[in-house]
Amino acid sequence: MTPEMSAVRLHETGGPQSLRIDRTLVPEPGEGEVVVRLRAASLNHRDVFITQGLYPNIRMPVTLGSDGAGEIVALNGDSLGLRTGEEIVIDPMLGWGNDPSVWDSKSSLLGMPRDGTFAQYVAVPAANVYRKPELLSMEEAAAIPLAGLTAYRAIFTRGALARGETVLITGVGGGVQTFVLLFAKHAGARAIVTSSSDEKLERATALGADLTINYKTVPDWEKRLRSEGPIDLVVDSSGGETLRKALDAVRPGGRIVVYGGTNGDATIKMFPLFWKHVSILGTSMGSPQDFAAMLELFRSNLRPVVDRVFSLRDAVAAMQRLANADQFGKVVLRID
Amino acid sequence: MTPEMSAVRLHETGGPQSLRIDRTLVPEPGEGEVVVRLRAASLNHRDVFITQGLYPNIRMPVTLGSDGAGEIVALNGDSLGLRTGEEIVIDPMLGWGNDPSVWDSKSSLLGMPRDGTFAQYVAVPAANVYRKPELLSMEEAAAIPLAGLTAYRAIFTRGALARGETVLITGVGGGVQTFVLLFAKHAGARAIVTSSSDEKLERATALGADLTINYKTVPDWEKRLRSEGPIDLVVDSSGGETLRKALDAVRPGGRIVVYGGTNGDATIKMFPLFWKHVSILGTSMGSPQDFAAMLELFRSNLRPVVDRVFSLRDAVAAMQRLANADQFGKVVLRID
Description:
2 copies of one chain form a homodimer.
Chain A: E1 4-10, E2 19-25, E3 33-42, H1 45-51, E4 62-63, E5 67-76, E6 87-90, E7 93-94, E8 108-109, E9 121-125, E10 129-131, H2 138-143, H3 145-158, E11 166-169, H4 175-186, E12 190-195, H5 198-206, E13 211-214, H6 221-224, E14 231-236, H7 240-249, E15 250-258, E16 266-268, H8 270-275, E17 279-282, H9 288-297, E18 306-311, H10 315-323, E19 330-334
Parallel strand pairs in A: 11-12, 11-14, 12-13, 14-15, 15-17, 18-19
Antiparallel strand pairs in A: 1-2, 1-4, 3-5, 3-9, 3-19, 5-6, 6-10, 7-8
Helix pairs in contact in A: 3-4, 3-9
């Protein structure tokens, strides 16, 4: 292990351009921790938001990055059966706590305040390390953690999607919604997806989407959906107008799971909410139980959707792709 | 059985004053139905809304009234073990269907379109008739059905209230919220109630409320509640500003159950919804399972809160009391 490594670090906010590739010290494992030699990492909107200063309590300098895969190179204390050299993937949720229904108030995500995965090495608790699914490459494994966790909890733990049900996925293309589509089809559900991009809708069809709607050309999509059978579940990260329409579109007794709010606050009508017995269910990230169950799905032949692979030194260009919402699936960094 | 009876009927909308006390025919029991000689009925906001024309598809003339208690005087077909002379209370939810999570689209409430309980006799399906809890008077039994059903489903079936939890009851005084308070205390929960009336707050304290807040004098009650420990569940029928504040007040992982929207549409912030994993759960009325479980609570020493008893011929004055929101608990009609 060399004492120094490359890491993508934020010293001041101002967008992805503010990131620097630093030479910094390889971390030491604390008690109950492991050090991982990272081979790949993946990007989340959270990383972009942090560079833009759109996150509370930003600590700097910090190595960004929640998602990573690599090999264990050092252990300290209870290794939970892990061995040096083992290929692993990291659960980025640190200290979720004992209540499966919500995080502990002291929990946090890897990659701020704790130094993250956009580096050659990272130290994490041994409890956050899981064996890499054998069929996946390092790039594929690194694409999974935070988005896969958020999607799994949204669709199953919160949304309770069942075989044969219909799920509406609003604004497909981002990392989480692409996993929602993958998981929905894997679970034997019917998937309806919306996007403003015909190209993304074509990609979604190739992944198994049963019906696609361009919300730019069909702005009253909630009316269009009335002839498409009952919508059992909506998974949304937009809020605003989209959530208002989702409440119209969902069937009586249906569920709307919300894990973001990029379109801002939502004005919702009370009558369809209470009259139709609709459940609006907030979610973000997920519990260790969610992570373990989610990763199991990838031990058969399921594969995440990798949009593009950049090298670690091109992290700024990779982030820009995410900031522009150009991607379909996950943007990955290869770490040499 | 006389062929004619008195009934409070609506021939045209225009508020409670439009009601008439008619002489009309005693109903005959259809197949699988019973005829009940009513001894008491109780009022719901639904009845007022119907007189005001604020309800879809109003059929007239119609005998209003969802809630009633009395004795069985006639049976037709499968009597489900019921006998003439038996003292009963009526579940007003007609044709809920087989899905406990939501009503069937063909379901309806007794008292429009089907003639209801503001009359000396009513015909209802035998399946909607339950033995009156022995300790209750006819007036008390008639106070329970729709409000008790709505409250039970809100707090338990949807809200999953557990012993030791804290529930916030916004705007206590109406029929449903008074049952929510009763049930919450019966279940061993801590109850915080709000109202604009100090008199109603005093009544709530007498019923066991642990903390009361006048939202007129403490308009930022959601901030005041921060020092009162975590709020696990909010039960609300206001919507609007109240729902927005409830989202601030509820703990991470908490639930907000909504069964009405008297304050209009709500603009809700996305961040606390998804970040705190909050569940906003719509509900209205309840299933046969809810009704049976709710009624069981009254077979011990629990008693509903009767605000005032009017005679059937004073139905207009009784409705006016409800329309003015002057009541605390249920407004009942005695039927001679």
